[in-house]
Amino acid sequence: MAIPRFRYSFATGFSKMTLEDARHAKKELYDFLGCKAESEFSRKKHSFLNIPQHVYEGVTAIFAKYGVPESEVWSKTMAP
Predict the structure, then answer these.
(1) How many whole angstroms separate alpha carbon 68 and alpha carbon 13?
(2) Is residue 11 a contact partner of residue 45, using CB atoms and an 8 Å limit?
(3) CA distances from 18 to 5, 25, 37, 40, 70 (A)
């Protein structure tokens, strides 16, 4: 039996923020995730495959600074 793979997205978390907070959070996430290009950030934002626990917790903590609880940050789907 194959090990299930999941795709995580934190895109929904941005809809729970003000535009000002979203701009600040995006900059922090860019730095935290080490993104060099918008395409790389977008891929991680919408479809982070099998996200490591420390990255999951770091992204969740950044959203928590802006009042977005973990339950409203993440969506998770099965990867093919």
Answers:
(1) 7
(2) yes
(3) 32, 10, 23, 23, 17
Q: Give the pLDDT of the chain (80 residues) as one tens digit per residue.
A: 678 889 999 999 999 999 999 999 999 999 999 999 999 999 999 999 889 999 999 999 999 999 999 999 999 998 87
Quote helix, strand, coil % in the chain, to nearest 5. 55, 10, 30
Q: What CA–CA distance (Å, rounded) separates 71 from 37?
A: 28
**Cα gap 8→20, rounded to integer Å:** 24
Total-model pTM: 0.89
Distance, first Cα to last Cα, the chain = 14
Edge-to-edge strand order for the sheet containing 75-78?
Answer: 48-49, 6-9, 75-78
SS3 43: helix
